[in-house]
From TrEMBL:
CDD domains: HATPase (cd00075), HisKA (cd00082), PDC1_DGC_like (cd12914). This is histidine kinase. It comes from Salipiger bermudensis (strain DSM 26914 / JCM 13377 / KCTC 12554 / HTCC2601). It catalyses: ATP + protein L-histidine = ADP + protein N-phospho-L-histidine. Pfam families: HATPase_c. Its main location: membrane. It is found in: Cell membrane. One of its GO terms (molecular function) is ATP binding. Its EC number is 2.7.13.3.
Length: 597
């Protein structure tokens, strides 16, 4: 008994020491599990940031060049040059609406040099931007000063947020500047992040969250904003209709964020983005805490059981084997993911190389196409005066001895045709270079009679009757006499070739309204098939057989009429003939009188 009693204190000390060792081991295992799970969470955040960064960059790059490309259009420059011209503004509105619809962008609008909206893709919508002053917006001031500007803001007109990309449009010839802006809706990215369970946020250069998958983070600063910053944001109205001054900072005490009031999260990773933005990713840390606590509890339980059971080694072998299998599985997954990322990077490099090669090919093709269009247009336009001049000189040769007066008239006509070829060559050169020739007041009736005179020999040779129905008044338009005559001659020749020889009839009529002049060229031919009508104005498209014609007549007519600020309307039905209308803005009588004075 005395010996047994002396052993009890010693056994108790040994058990206490073992209990302490088991407890310390359990705590160490819990800490290790915490670090392992935390590393996995950080790795997942790294991958999520990479994917989110690429998605955001891709969405912005889709429309980055859209303002610059849209600003090169003649309708946009015409609207900047003549903001008081309703026709020019209407053409710009419809062009921007079409571009926005085809590209799938948000809103596309044009600002004057003073920041006033001249045209917009939503011109017909209740919340139209037209007429609003956005000179206070940072994207406008940056684009006006540096050439480009971009900012994320809440719309002051619609209240809808978006990413605004602006590009300055310069016209040195007219000393006019403007800014084209596209508004992109990035909220689909928020919904995609929310659907995948990610906690992603994007902050601006002032560290204000404006794009996030967590509703409670939106329009809140990471830290308290100083008074000058709040004043600057209020002046620019970037976050209009939001309570930014009263918003509670998301990181008042460190790097933890509240996730919808359901726990705590640690901002584990962040990556910079363009314009001073920063892409942040957060994740709940409760899985790591739970893993640490569970591992510690399991280790403690295993130690206690090991102290009381003889098969402690067997249990430890199983635990080690389990750990090894888990490590092997994790390493295999890491290797697989690394190989997938390597393949993906190589595929993207190949796609980028293919895109660069395709871009170079398209540039070269466009150069060759422009050269072909110019050469073909010269051949097409000069062939008509040459034929007329040949006929005139032949008639002059026969009449040299019989009728000297008529011969002199024919030679005078041939000289006029030569001057007309010179004018055509000059106009074609301007057309090929996209140069805008000067416009002047033109008598529509005089141009129509001149075009009929040029087309009369071909009509007589084909046995086609030409009819002319002038207007009651003498309308005038702002155009070029030779180019308008060229358009009417092309349309008359097309109509003469479309009717049945000996039975055909072609009519040129002039009609006036309060604002427009319409020159209609109609025929009683077989009409145009419905499947051919949409392509009739395409360059190099022709329905003539045997290689006759180059398919450039209507394409040139469309281009010339648009330079005059008008439009070309083609209507046809099988068996009912074809009618082509040249619609031009009417030059007001007061304007013509002032010009004459």
């Amino acid at each position: 008994m005395p010996r047994r009693a002396s052993l009890l204190p010693r056994l108790r000390s040994v058990w206490r020491l073992r209990l302490v060792l088991v407890t310390l081991g359990a705590l160490l295992c819990g800490a290790l599990a915490w670090q392992l799970v935390l590393a996995e969470l950080r790795q997942g955040l790294e991958q999520g940031l990479l994917v989110s960064h690429r998605a955001l960059q891709t969405e912005i790059d889709r429309f980055r060049a859209l303002p610059r490309v849209a600003g090169e259009d003649a309708r946009i420059r015409a609207a900047l040059a003549t903001p008081d011209d309703a026709a020019a503004i209407d053409a710009a509105n419809r062009y921007l609406q079409k571009i926005a619809s085809q590209t799938g962008s948000g809103q596309l609008y044009l600002l004057s040099e003073a920041g006033l909206t001249l045209a917009s893709s939503n011109w017909a919508a209740p919340g139209s931007f037209v007429g609003h002053d956005y000179s206070f917006r940072p994207y406008f001031t940056e684009a006006r000063d540096t050439g480009t500007g971009a900012v994320y803001a809440v719309g002051v007109t619609t209240g809808e947020p978006g990413y605004f990309i602006a590009t300055r449009i310069d016209d040195p010839d007219r000393d006019v500047q403007g800014v084209v802006v596209v508004k992109i809706d990035l909220r689909p990215l928020e919904r995609a992040w929310a659907e995948t369970g990610q906690h992603i946020a994007v902050t601006d250069r002032d560290e204000v969250v404006f794009l996030t998958s967590v509703d409670g983070w939106r329009y809140r600063p990471l830290t308290a904003l100083p008074a000058p910053t709040l004043a600057r944001l209020a002046d620019s109205r970037l976050y209009a209709r939001t309570d930014l001054p009263g918003a509670t900072p998301l990181l008042p005490k460190g790097s933890e964020l509240s996730l919808n009031g359901k726990g705590r999260a640690t901002t584990l990773r962040g990556t910079p983005f363009e314009n001073g933005w920063r892409l942040l990713a957060a994740t709940p840390v409760w899985p790591a805490r739970a893993a640490g606590l569970a591992t510690a509890a399991l280790a403690l339980l295993a130690g206690l059981l090991g102290l009381g059971l003889a098969d402690m080694r067997r249990h430890r072998r199983r635990l080690i084997a389990l750990r090894l299998r888990q490590t092997e599985v994790m390493e295999r997954k890491v290797r697989q993911r690394t190989a997938e990322l390597a393949r993906e990077i190589e595929a993207r490099r190949q796609v980028e190389a293919d895109l660069r090669a395709m871009q170079a090919t398209l540039v070269q093709s466009e150069k060759m196409a422009a050269l072909g269009r110019m050469s073909a247009a010269i051949v097409h336009e000069v062939s008509q005066p040459l034929a007329a001049m040949e006929a005139t000189l032949t008639a002059a040769e026969f009449g040299l001895s019989r009728a000297p007066e008529q011969t002199a008239a024919r030679l005078h006509s041939a000289r006029g045709l030569i001057r007309r070829m010179q004018r055509m060559t000059k106009h074609l050169k301007n057309f090929s270079r996209r140069e805008v020739a000067p416009l002047s007041p033109v008598e529509v009736t005089d141009v129509a009679r001149s075009a009929l005179a040029l087309a009369q020999p071909r009509a007589d040779a084909a046995g086609v009757a030409l009819r002319f129905a002038p207007a009651d008044s003498a309308p005038r338009v702002e155009a070029g006499h030779a180019r308008l005559e060229q358009v009417l001659v092309n349309l008359l020749h097309n109509a003469i070739e479309a009717v049945v020889p000996g039975e055909g009839e072609v009519t040129l009529s002039i009609q006036c309204t309060a604002q427009e002049v319409t020159l209609r060229v109609g025929d009683n031919g077989p009409g145009i098939a419905p499947d051919v009508l949409p392509r009739i104005a395409e360059p190099f498209f022709s329905t003539k057989v045997g290689g006759e014609g180059l398919g450039l007549g209507l394409a040139i007519c469309f281009e010339v009429v648009q330079q005059f600020g008008g439009r070309l309307d083609i209507r046809s039905a099988p068996g009912a003939g074809t009618e082509v209308a040249v619609i031009l803005p009417l030059l007001a009588r007061d304007d013509t009188q002032e010009a004459a004075e």
